[in-house]
Amino acid sequence: MPVPLLDVNAQNHPLEAEFTAAFQRVFRSGIFIGGPEITALEDEIARLVGAKHAIGVSSGTDAILIALMALDIGPGDQVLCPAFTFFATAGCVSRLGATPVFVDVCPICFNIDLNDAAAKITSRTKAIIPVHLFGQSAEMDRVMQLASQHGLNVIEDAAQAIGATYRERACGTIGDFGTYSFFPSKNLGGLGDSGLVVTNNDTLAAKSRALRNHGMEPKYYHSTIGGNFRIDALQAALLRVKLPHYARYTAARRANADFYTRSLGALPGAVQANAKDCVCRGAAGGGAQSASLVLPVELPDNGHIWNQYTLRVIGEGRRDALRDHLTTRKIGCDIYYPLTLDRQKCFAYLPASSRSGCDIAHQLASEVLSIPIYAELSESQRDEVVAALADFLR
Ligand SMILES: *Cc1c(COP(=O)(O)O)cnc(C)c1O
Question: For 3-30, what is each residue's pLDDT tens digit?
Fold first, then answer.
């Protein structure tokens, strides 16, 4: 039986009747832009994560863009971003004329290395964007400490981490802004593109609301330049169908991760990353690695939502060999991310100081491989993934 990396139909098709009802509700109302579905979704998400304000927008990318715009980030400003993340994190910084400064990451939790971040702060540094990569929180106490010491704004890129927690607080609600994505492959996946911004700051919330609609407040009066960053009423209504099931999806992903960690951990040459080696939590480095396969770990105090279950495959060429092995056996897998941002062609224009010292990120880009973790994965599918990995390590 083939095992896809993700099967959106397995999650969405059982809800077809509810999606149809939601579509009809909006269709019959004739309200497609703004309106009660959007405010209802915003209220529901604000309650889910414990944020004061939630603002639905067109995508997770636009959520980051709006947050940066609301903070007046622009030419001359530097923004610290991890080198190992999806492009949008840094793309938004560049689009506003500001300068992304790439920061190395931790080999244990894959998140921004705060020692390296501290070393790269200058008088021009205005903000830091910790990304809660693969569904696990960055080390937010240290992020906030660094931010308050140096007067930085904090935008949490929580595109992969809606509902994840750090010391009991929801990812996205700790910094000045949190940004979420409802891209279909995210944990709360919509039926198209959309995203959301959260903040606890009244002024920033009002600014963000105006920015999402051309900076218009009141109608046809523009004191700032915004854009069309609105979420569709239809998309909001469809997302609301999935929201009541979200806790169950997360529980299933967590159970899959536990299963992998137990089953794969028993294979020869496989070890779980040691939380004590996490550089974000003060360890010196990743520790000597004699294993051939390193399993991901949920750090203490974190509630991981497992957007990805990402292996490190140690040894020259071994990751690509495993990818080919799984592909031959019709098991879905992918590399998030094969090329770090500091090495992207589009960022070659940046000064060398923006692109220095990202060695761990480079190493990870050559070692990582994500395997199926989606909520609807069946027991026999999980077994197949483990059997294929056992075969590879034999
Ligand atoms: C998906 C993602 C985004 C962008 O979200 P879109 O909704 O696709 O625009 C931004 N940052 C990270 C880390 C992501 O994974």
Answer: 999 999 999 999 999 999 999 999 999 9
Query: Nearest CA to 357 among 374, 371, 345, 343?
Result: 343
Residue of 6, 112, 183 to test ligand 1 pocket, by largest number of atoms within 8 Å of CB:
183
Residues 370 and 185: their CA atoms lie apart, in Å, by 13
162 C-alpha to ligand 1 centroid (Å): 12
Mean pLDDT of 65-74: 98
The pTM of this model reads 0.98
CB 256 within 8 A of CB 383: no
Fold of 8-245: Aspartate Aminotransferase; domain 2 (3.40.640)
- Mean residue pLDDT of the chain comes to 97
Q: Quote the pLDDT of residue 283.
A: 85
Q: Do 341 and 90 form a contact (C-beta atoms < 8 A)?
A: yes
pLDDT at residue 284, as a whole number: 78
Listed in order, the ranges of the chain carrying CATH 3.90.1150.10 are: 247-393
The CATH code for residues 247-393 is 3.90.1150.10
Q: Tell whether ligand 1 has an atom less than 6 A from the beta carbon of residue 58.
A: no
The separation between the first and the last C-alpha atoms of the chain, rounded to the nearest angstrom, is 22
Question: Does any ligand 1 atom lie closer than 6 A to the CB of residue 278?
Answer: no
Intervals of CATH 3.40.640.10 along the chain: 8-245
Residue 287: the pLDDT is 57
